[in-house]
Specification:
This protein has 13 helices and 13 strands. The chain has about 375 residues and is an alpha+beta fold. Strands 1, 2, 3, 4, 5, 6, 7, 8, 9, 10, 11, 12 and 13 form a 13-stranded mixed beta sheet that branches. Helix 7 packs across helix 12. The chain starts with a strand and ends with a strand.
Length: about 375
């Protein structure tokens, strides 16, 4: 069998590009297919705020029968260029059959694309920024992915590394159960912050979603500006995420913390909607919609997307209070366990907090890099 690299430059090829996962994951009981409509919106400049300033170029590989057997997106992020210089080109949306030549052709197409623009290094996968789905799964294949997390075949790691890609950073997913009893040290810290009259928490207010989205966006950008690969989240991207979340969110899983009335930190948890999406198999037809509404109240786990406290307010116990409020909600709702992800492997401060609370690593994701 021979393989040929191609550009995705027609409606038919684009449709095959978006539907390739049906072949890659056929028979895999852990994979959660994204809604096809959401994939279409992701590459639509009128629907995805990233594409108002960033650019993507889609590539693929076909076999002798002209069937698509691999796909990849080259991603140009001007915000990243301004922050770090024209250093990194990104790749994402990568999927491919178990064939080293196919993987190599995909990576080489993207490297060639960026080489012509004088980028020096290639990083990925990210879809399309590090604020979204990132990395490939390298540990934890016996679990379905949580909401906004990736899943892929085990062979991805070996084949990408055979293409010369090296580890840039690993990201971790921690798991903890609702009935876990927190250690006494945590309770002492919690008691101290609970009696601090300068500290106040409130939930995300849907009636003030514009205001609260801006508060969380600002906190996020300040809390994580020194994290590896950070790119600020625009208010437009934040607003889109809010609209996406509001269809299934639980307000008492999203908390904003204030110290002396000043926004100081937040925690963002969401019901793990993938427990329902896995039943829909990427389709949004009438029966699928009915299935969604019949099952969404049966979700028994959550994903904590992020927990952040501004540097000047760390050490006061605000992290503990935010976790406590979320945990209290989990105990009265039907949530049996929660996942904290993604945690950068070198974020030892948050890792220590989670491990002291009894959370354990159960998945590992990897972002790669290589020279161009």
């Amino acid at each position: 069998m021979e393989y040929k690299p191609i550009e995705i430059n027609s409606r038919k090829l684009l449709n095959n590009f978006l539907r390739l996962t049906r072949d890659i994951y056929r028979g895999n009981n852990y994979y959660v297919s994204p809604l096809y409509s959401e994939l279409q919106e992701k590459i639509n400049p009128l629907k995805n705020p990233f594409l108002t300033y960033g650019k993507i170029k889609l590539f693929g590989v076909i076999n002798d029968n002209r069937n698509l057997v691999g796909r990849i997106a080259a991603i140009i992020n001007p915000v990243n260029d301004r922050l770090y210089g024209k250093e990194y080109g990104f790749f994402g949306m990568i999927e491919f059959i178990n064939n080293t030549e196919v993987a190599s052709l995909l990576i080489n197409q993207v490297k060639s694309f960026f080489s012509e623009m004088n980028y020096k290094r290639l990083i990925g996968p990210v879809n399309f920024t590090t604020n979204e789905e990132s990395g490939i799964l390298i540990e934890g294949f016996d679990y379905s992915p949580s909401f906004m997390c990736v899943y892929n075949p085990k062979y991805y790691q070996e084949l990408l590394e055979n293409c010369g890609l090296k580890k840039a950073v690993d990201m971790l997913a921690y798991r903890g159960y609702t009935d876990h009893i927190y250690p006494e040290k945590f309770n002492k810290i919690l008691n101290r912050i609970l009696h601090n009259t300068n500290a106040e928490l409130r939930t995300f207010d849907k009636t003030k979603k514009v205001n609260d989205t801006k508060i969380i966006c600002d906190l996020y950008n300040q809390c994580f500006k020194d994290v590896w690969g950070f790119v600020p989240l625009s208010i437009e991207e934040s607003n889109l995420m809010t609209e996406k979340f509001l269809s299934f969110y639980d307000p008492e899983l999203i908390w904003i913390g204030f110290i002396n009335g000043v926004p100081a930190g937040f925690i963002l948890g969401l019901p793990d909607i993938n427990k329902v999406l896995i039943k829909m198999k990427g389709r949004l037809f009438p029966f699928s919609i009915i299935k969604f509404y019949l099952n969404k109240n049966k979700i028994d786990s959550i994903r904590v997307l992020t927990l952040g406290v501004l540097p000047q307010f760390r050490g006061l116990g605000l992290e503990s209070l935010l976790i406590h409020r979320l945990h209290e909600r989990m105990k009265v709702a039907p949530y049996r366990w929660g996942e904290f992800s993604f945690i950068m492997e070198n974020n030892y401060r948050i890792r220590k907090v989670l491990e002291n609370l009894g959370f354990a690593i159960y998945k590992r994701y990897r972002i790669y890099e290589t020279t161009i």
